[in-house]
Structures are given as C-alpha cells and as structure tokens.
Amino acid sequence: MLNFDWINVLGIAALGQAALLSAYMMVIAGRQLAQWLLTLSLITLAIALAHDVFLQSKLALHFPYLLGTGPFATYLIGPRILLVSYKIIWPEKPYSKWHLLHFVPFVVQQWNATATYLMSSGQKTAFLEQYYQAATDSVLVPNFSITTVVSLLTFYAPRFVYFLYVLWLLQNNRQDIQHAQPVRRLGYRALQYGLLGYCLLWALHRALTYWEFSSVWALEYQPALNAAMLSSTIILFAVMALRFPLDDLFSPKTSKKYKNSELDEGTANSLIKKIEAYLTVEGNFSNPDIRQSDVANALQLSPQLISQIINSQTGMSFNQYINRQRVDALKLLLQCSENQHKDILTLAFEAGFNSKPTLNRVFKQQVGTTPTAYRSHYFCAVRN
Fold it and tell me: Coil, strand, or helix at residue 120?
C-alpha cells in the first residue's frame, strides 16, 4: 500500500521543479562548463530525492529501477560542489584536466554497484519487500562501536572532506566576492550556510541516533528528514533561478555602486591612480610580503576602501590586482635578451612571486601558458 504524506508530496513537487529547471539550465548553459556542472548538481540532488521519495512512499515497489541509486551522490556531490564553488570564487580561472581526478572515486563506486543496477525487476522487488517487512517488524537501536565508526567514515567521509575544504575556501576568499553581482554573492552565501547547516544537522542526527531515548525516532524519520532537506534545497534553487540571471553566478563583473559608499567616479579615479603609483611606479608590488593593510597605511586610507577602489575600478580583488602587476613585470623580464638564459624562478622572485607553484598557477591563469613556454615563444617570434 502506498504511503503518501506531506513530505512525499513536497518531494514530488520539487522533482517536477528540478526537471523543468534542469531543462532550462541546459538550454542556457551553452559552452560554459560551470553551468553544466551546476546543472549536474541539480540532477544529482533530484536523483537522491527521487530515491528517498520512492522508498518512503513505497512507489519503489512499482518502480524498482531506482534501487541502488541511494549512494549515487556519495562520491559525486563533493567534487561537483568543489568545482562549482571554484567558479563562484574565481570566475576567471579555467578548469584543469586534473580536476577530472576528483571523479575517479565516483567511477569506481559506480563500477562496484553494477551488480545492483543489473538486477532484474523481480529481484529488486523481492529485495524491497524484504526491506519493508524488516522495517515493519522492528527498529533496532544501533550500537556505537569501532565497526560503526568505520562504516560511517566509509560512506560519509568522501563528501565531508570536500564539504569542509569548500567551507575553508569560502571563508578564506570572502573578499573576492564582496562586491560581486547579487546572484554570485547569494550563491556564495547559500553554499556557505547550506554546507555548514548540513554538517551540523548531520552531526545532531547521528548523536540522536546513538542516544537511547531518541534513537528509534531518529531512525524512523531519517528518510523523511532527508527528503525534506533535498526538497527545500531544490525549491530554493528554483526560486533563485527565477529571481536572478544565472549567467551572473559565475561572472567576474562587479558593481561600481556600493552600499553606504559616498565615493563618486572622480574620487574613485583619483584614488586608483594613487594606488597604482604606490604599487607600480614605486615598485612595491614586487615585495612578496605586501598586504592590503600596508597599502592602506602608506596612503592613509582604510583597508576596506582600498579593496573597494581596486574592485570597482578593475573588477579584481587586491590579490588578483597585485598578481596582475607581477605577471606584467615578469613578462617584461622574460622578453629581455639579457635574461634569456637566466633561471625563470630567479626572475619571478624579482617580480614579487615567492613560490614556484604560485608562479605557474597565476601566470598560466592570466597568460594561458607557462613562463617557460612564454619566453620560448617570444624569442622564436623575434628570430623569425
């Protein structure tokens, strides 16, 4: 007998919204990989929600094909949240082929689940009938043990490693999006609060599961809680898509008009020239330890105002702006015939870079090639 309550009805409504929104996002995605990853994120949420709704409502007995998709998102949700967050924080950074390695565990897990996917409809139905019968007969309070901890880590650790890393990235790069387009700021906050809320609610639910007085309740309502959270996420996703242009979610565009700011365009232009003079003309960008507060102290301005001016006039954060100066300086050094045989890392240190990984990442991001290849191509072009 089917079991429909308000959570299942909410879930089915959310699935309908997910289907329509996914189709819309595919149409507008074009060649933007970040948009396709966002669409994949929505589809992943929908698959997880469909599994929970079909299982809880017992629709799975009539449509057993979803059996085995429960862990589908376990190894996929982390990488796609990381890559979507990557583009929200740094819209201008291209994806690397190495990012594909994040999906290797998902491929392995899906390969291991092949046997379940290939079960016949009758086998899946029989399994589900046993599952529902066991759930009706008794609900056992789980014992907290080393085996339980290992089992939890095996299933949940992959996603939580990504979740915690993304939270760390969002916290450490919050200045890069403080003057971004509204939908990009909203996406940033939604990710931050959503991941933090999920981690806290998961920890609370696990604690209730292993507490004798609440264990039965926590186990009985776990599918409903999962379905409610997934449904709410998808519905909020749909509302955001209707309210804002999704193209701006990964846009580096910024607004020159800041809340509570009394700066006019003339003052902003004057201040950016002072900042440029201090950093570029005086060469302070080549100091590897230069900080936003150092520039603020030198020009007798607040660090917040320095950030605001650079962002409004260049569309970059302070660190991005400094790195742009360093890349331009290094390009000039690499073009100098006297430096043709000098060590590139030595020249990079002169330009203000303090490590090889940072040099290669920033240079390739801005120029599209490595410093070595840039110098080689430049002198080849000169000789020809």
Answer: coil
Question: CB within 8 A of 183, min separation 6: which ones?
Answer: 240, 244, 245, 246, 248, 249
Question: Identity (one letter) of the amino acid at 18?
Answer: A
Residue 145 vs residues 128, 141, 148, 166, 210: alpha-carbon distances, Å: 28, 13, 5, 29, 10
- DSSP bridge pairs for 143: none
Instruction: Indicate if the pLDDT at residue 110 is higher than 50.
Output: yes
* Domains of the chain from N-terminus onward: 6-250 (1.20.1070), 265-383 (1.10.10.60)
Nearest in space to 237 (alpha carbons), one of 12, 34, 15: 15
DSSP assignment of 18-76 = HHHHHHHHHHHHTT-HHHHHHHHHHHHHHHHHHHHHHHHHTGGGT-GGGTT-GGGGTTT
pLDDT confidence of 262, banded at 50, 70, 90? low
Structure tokens at 128: 């589900």
DSSP string, 303-314: HHHHHHHHHHHH
Residue 297 token pair: 């102290």
Q: Which residue has the tokens 């309070």?
A: 141
pLDDT tens track for 272-331: 889 989 988 888 888 988 888 899 889 888 888 888 888 878 878 888 899 999 999 999
**314-345 residues labelled b (16+ CB within 10 A) or e (exposed):** bbbbbebbbbebbbebbbebbeeeebeeeebe
List the alpha helices (DSSP H) in the chain.
Answer: 6-29, 33-57, 77-89, 104-112, 114-117, 121-137, 146-172, 182-209, 215-220, 222-243, 265-276, 292-299, 303-314, 318-335, 344-351, 356-367, 371-383
Nearest to 378 by CA among 369, 152, 199: 369
- Identify the CA nearest to 256 among candidates 150, 179, 341: 179
For residue 184, pLDDT beyond 90 = no
Residues 6+ apart with CB under 8 A from 263: 271, 308, 309, 312
Question: Which residues have C-beta within 8 Å of that of residue 142, sequence separation ≥ 6?
Answer: 148, 209, 210, 215, 219
> Mean pLDDT across the stretch 163-182?
81
